[in-house]
Amino acid sequence: MQVLDFEKPVAELESKIEELRHLSDGGRVNIADEVGKLQDKVERQLRHIYAKLTPAQKVQVARHTDRPHCLDYIRELVTDFTPLAGDRNFAEDQAIIGGLGRLLGQPCVLIGQERGHDTDSRIKHNFGMAKPEGYRKAQRLMKLAAQFDLPIITFVDTAGAFPGVEAEARGQAEAIARSIEVCLSVEVPLVACVIGEGGSGGAIAIAAGDRVLMLEHAIYSVISPEGCASILWRSAANAADAAAALRLTAQDLHQLGVIDQIIAEPLGGAHRQPKQMIQSVGEAILQHLAELTPLDGKALLEQRHAKYLAMGKKGLQ
Asked: In 3D, which of 215, 220, 219 has the Cα closest to residue 263?
């Protein structure tokens, strides 16, 4: 497992636990009491560290390579998943995964950004950075959901839309804007969940839902801390200052009224207990869908528009 800088004291304790367990493999040494004491110490350290994470440290946790990604949620939560590919215009974009399935029994359309876990999968999914055809695929699937009266669930996890010249040439900005428009106009429930990094328009393109959920240590911002620092301070070295100024944490965004719920992560972050995290997310999504599905299309649109028109007022009071 990748060890973050501020987790090193915990990693040292966990290394000692593994050494003790290795010593006891032969059954000649009983180290249960010592291992128990060290595990208690690990838990205390994690509680102490994660109770006071800085925004810059939360950025590191949100980007942790072992955090569960979109496909992990689909594998654990969704049955009868049928992936749907292509934008019916240019190409298939595997940075965005989409299809039909049953999330814990609830029929729905699922859309999410997939970053990949290793080199091959990251290249395949372009590190979760979608091109215009990815956002046009998302639009197609959202309209399909409306046609069959199915709720939409989106998993947001991207550093941002792909910034290449070819993406701009194919209308990246227009594709993102149209995707946001479809999110705001589709007459079925839309629940979005920021599971890792929610970066810029690339994230909001599939996140402008009736309810926006966010994991405890996820981040959601208009620009990356490094990008912000390069603009304001002319140096990425000030990324920690930018992270604090951007107010990109789930706690800040809930206070500002940008998101609707913070989903607690297991002690030490989602990367330590991925299956537990995935189950918590599934249950939270179902809870919100239960509140939204009784509403008709007109009521959903009225509530959704009121939500976004009022956004920001809470933070200005």
From this structure: 215
